[in-house]
Amino acid sequence: MISIDGISKEFDLGSETVTALDTLSHDVAAGRFVAVVGPSGCGKSTLLRLIAGLEKPSSGSIEIEAGRVRRPVGFVFQDAVLLPWKTVEANVRFPLDTGGTKRALADAKVRELLELTGLSGFAKALPRQLSGGMKQRAAIARALAEDPPILLMDEPFSAVDLLTRETLNDELLRIWERTGKTVVLVTHSVEEAAYLADEVMVLSAHPGRLVKTYEVALARPRNEATKLDRDYHELVAALRRDLRGGRIRP
Ligand code: ADP
Ligand code: MG
């Protein structure tokens, strides 16, 4: 579904050139949940922006095979970028209205998304009346509004407390299982990566290279028992070792 073929990304800063990503290749099959981990500044956000088509690679190519859909990807950022003067419902509806979806269809879609993300009781609330976790749920609902087959998430739960984060992880898994989306999630947390993903991509520090990919064989559905699983702990430890190595890599 996503074919990343030898992409590099350089940023020209006038006097010098920063290589954010260095000849990275990877294929993501439809319906998979992929986590990306790596030290700060290694090019994780750049990778997502390239997949989203928000930027072009300096070399190499990315192909998205999504059939004839109007919007192949939805994007969720670290800080939910909701329109502060619009209600939750209106925020989720916004891409549908600007995209010209028929009114009755949009009504039904918004209802379905608020239900999916557990926000049905907060349709008329304004963003400032929501907790951080609820804002992120609204941002997920909005990203799913046009039913993109791919959901890209850039450290979506970094700004919420740990307990909320664990709840949101479980909700994200439920949403993923119900919708069958292909998910690429960037996270700082190796625990989160191991708990959620089918595969974990590990990027090295500056310039970002794909160091290795782990297949995560942990049973689904994942739940509290997963966190007691020996394989889960071994994967978390291995990822942590990789990241420590990655930080001192040139
Ligand atoms: P991460 O998300 O892993 O922390 P980023 O993808 O944000 O890393 O950034 C990777 C590198 O590319 C960093 O060195 C960053 O400074 C640089 N970079 C990212 N975006 C730009 C840009 N628009 N202009 C110049 N440099 C950039
Ligand atoms: Mg980033």
Question: Layout of SSEs?
Answer:
Elements: E1 2-12, E2 17-28, E3 33-37, H1 44-51, E4 59-64, E5 73-76, H2 88-98, H3 103-116, H4 132-143, E6 150-154, H5 162-179, E7 182-186, H6 190-196, E8 199-203, E9 210-215, H7 230-248
Parallel strand pairs: 3-7, 3-8, 5-6, 6-7
Antiparallel strand pairs: 1-2, 1-4, 8-9
Helix pairs in contact: 2-3, 2-4, 6-7
Bound molecules: adenosine-5'-diphosphate and magnesium ion.
Magnesium ion (MG) is lined by residues 44-45, 154.
What would you say this structure looks like, in words?
- This protein has 2 domains: 2-67 and 149-244, 3-Layer(aba) Sandwich (Rossmann fold); 82-148, no CATH class.
- It contains 7 helices and 9 strands.
- It has helices spanning 44-51, 88-98, 103-116, 132-143, 162-179, 190-196, 230-248; strands at 2-12, 17-28, 33-37, 59-64, 73-76, 150-154, 182-186, 199-203, 210-215.
- The strands form 2 sheets. The chain has a 6-stranded mixed sheet, with helices on both faces. Strands 2-1-4 form a 3-stranded antiparallel sheet, with helices on one face.
- Helix 2 (88-98) packs across helix 3 (103-116).
- The two termini are 32 Å apart.
- The relative contact order is 0.19.
- Adenosine-5'-diphosphate is lined by residues 11, 13, 18, 20, 38, 40-46.
- Adenosine-5'-diphosphate (ADP) is lined by residues 11, 13, 18, 20, 38, 40-46.
